[in-house]
Design brief:
This protein is mainly α. It has one domain. 78% of the residues lie in helices and 0% in strands. The longest helix is centred in the middle third of the chain and has 27 residues. The chain is elongated and about 60 Å long.
């Protein structure tokens, strides 16, 4: 059975499939959920908090289930598939009046993703990177992922991101490993 918090998140996503973010209110969400405002505010501080929470949980669940250093496509594939399932919702959020908040959340989530990626690589390879190189690699991956996602959203998700990402992984094969090895060498 779905708990109230999850039901509110799912209701928001369904509502965003039907209408732009700017037309949605807490009143709309609680009405569709059949709950009162106090229940909504027990779980969330407002709509921006609800959206950020939904995105953060999606990333976290996807990473926990599919994350692999060997193949970034293992976590990217379910993430993109989820995004495509809620295409209208994501585009409504992205093109909303609160775009700055969306970009900030996206940057934060991609920063978390990049940090988890770097930490996983370090743990799996037993490499020792100094803090400066670790931070630089985290920022690079955060910016790269954010840039790719922004381009995809700006193109209204019209191109096959999975195909493009897979080809990019092929083109850049080994470059990540070299960056980590070079960082480990300079840490010695």
């Amino acid at each position: 059975m779905q708990n109230t918090r999850e039901f509110i998140i799912e209701t928001l996503l369904q509502t965003l499939e039907e209408m732009p973010y700017s037309k949605i209110s807490v009143k709309e969400i609680v009405s569709r959920c059949g709950i009162n405002r106090n229940t909504f505010y027990y779980y969330f501080n407002g709509l921006p908090d609800l959206i950020e929470t939904a995105a953060r949980e999606l990333f976290s669940q996807t990473l926990d289930a599919h994350f692999s250093y060997d193949s970034p496509m293992e976590f990217l594939t379910p993430l993109v598939e989820y995004c495509m399932a809620y295409k209208k919702a994501l585009l409504h959020i992205y093109h909303s009046a609160s775009r700055e908040a969306v970009l900030l959340s996206m940057s934060k989530l991609n920063g978390d993703l990049a940090e988890r990626y770097v930490e996983k690589v370090i743990a799996e390879t037993s490499l020792h990177l100094n803090e400066r190189d670790r931070i630089i690699l985290c920022r690079f991956y955060k910016c790269a992922l954010t840039g790719v996602m922004l381009d995809w959203l700006d193109a209204k998700m019209s191109y096959d991101l999975l195909s493009a990402a897979e080809r990019l992984c092929d083109l850049l094969a080994g470059s990540s490993r070299r960056a980590f090895l070079k960082g480990a060498e300079s840490s010695e």
